[in-house]
Amino acid sequence: MNFYLRTFLDVISVTIPIFSIMAIGYLFRRKEIIKETAVPALNKIAYYLGLTTLIFTSIVKYDLREIFNVGIIKTLYVTFAIFIVIVLLSVYFLKIKKKTKGAMAISSFRCNMAFVGIPIVISAFGDIAAAKASIIIGFMTPVNIIFAIIFLKILGGEEKKKNYGRFFLDFIKDPLLIASILGILISYFRVSIPKPVMDLLNTLAGLAVPLALVTIGASFKFSHIKRNLKYLIPTSILKLLIEPAIAFFIGKYVFDIGPVDTTITVILFAMPLAVAAYIMGKEYDSDSDFISSSLILSTVSSAFTLTFWLFFLKIIFKSG
Fold first, then answer.
1. Contacts of 207 (CB under 8 A, 6+ apart)
2. Mean pLDDT by 10-residue block, N- to C-terminus, for the chain (320 residues)?
3. CA distance 296 to 26
4. Are 217 and 23 in contact (CB under 8 A)?
5. How many domains does the chain have?
């Protein structure tokens, strides 16, 4: 079989199941198998129970020395710094409402690394990739939250009183952040976890991937997109193509972190918009219609762009 065709088939064998499960979630909500009122509760179960335990167990399975690469952290922060400047310059001078500017900014950089990213890297590379992805999420969660608040404050959205204290508490209590830090500490100090406890955590972690994907699909509402399409398209291009392209260049040519680590980093930066961005936008009185539209458009579009990135990276590193 032709190398390119085989590579393409390998790639779609990863992406098609992921987005098929999302489609099932959407159909289940449309058929009211999943009630609309149940979606927020399912989302919390996936986030607080499934993904938290998955991130923790993914890290503690390995010695930190096996999975930690300081070059990845350098790549993350340099990529993010460059991209933040691009986002700021892209939206600051637009002749649109301030609320929409803030919504467009956070829609450009908030990545759904946990809900979509972890299933993709597990399917493509296995458990050790999930461990590396979990560490990336741990390092990226603080800067994502901090810069989302900054952009909503500077570019648009009039925050409610006393929200700073609330978001600071939410930040330090974020379960994914806590799970990442605990996992890193336990992995580094090689703390032994009793088998019954680990078995329980592994069972709970098994909930994460299918439940997260189903709830994303069940959350889709195809409204407001047409009205915002003029700015949604460039926002999605920034999110799904420009940001991962920067990560690829920095990872491969600046820090040379290796094929697998570069691929994982690029794929995580190529994720669609995170659901958390919509929640934060609502709290800060931003343009929540724009954010919800961006959430849907970027997630649907990522079915194609993620396939492209996986294919491109396999070709590049195979030929290299």
1. 45, 46, 49, 50, 53
2. 73 83 91 88 82 84 82 95 93 85 90 82 84 85 79 64 61 77 86 92 84 82 77 94 97 94 94 79 78 86 91 82
3. 11
4. yes
5. 1
d(CA 110, CA 236): 11
CATH of the domain at 31: 1.20.1530.20
3-state secondary structure of 273: strand
Neighbours of 2 (CB within 10 A): 7
Rounded Cα distance, 251 and 309, in Å: 14
How is residue 230 written in tokens? Answer: 């003029």
User: For residues 232 and 117, what is the distance between their CA atoms, to the nearest angstrom?
Assistant: 21
Measure the CA–CA gap between 94 and 168, rounded to whole angstroms. Answer: 30
Residue 235 token pair: 């926002």
Beta bridge partners of 273: 111
pLDDT computed for residue 81 by the predictor: 96
Yes or no: say if 255 and 74 are a contact pair by the CB < 8 Å rule. yes
Task: Determine the straight-line distance between the first and last CA of the chain, rounded to whole angstroms.
Answer: 21
Record the tokens describing residue 77, joined without a space: 């922060």
Q: Which residues contact 311 (CB under 8 A, 6 or more apart)?
A: 7, 8, 11
Residue with tokens 């393409």, as numbered in its chain:
8
Residues with Cβ within 8 Å of 9's Cβ and at least 6 positions away in sequence, in order, are none
Distance CA 46, CA 180 (A): 16
Pinpoint the alpha helices (H) of 45-126.
52-60, 64-67, 70-92, 98-109, 118-125
* Encoded amino acid at 256, one letter: D
| CA atoms of 185 and 274, how far apart (whole Å) | 26
Cα–Cα distance measured from residue 222 to residue 23, given in angstroms and rounded to the nearest whole number: 13
Main-chain dihedrals φ then ψ at residue 199, nearest 5 degrees: -60, -40
Which range of residues forms the domain containing residue 294? 3-319
Question: pLDDT digit string (tens) for 137-147?
Answer: 888 877 887 78
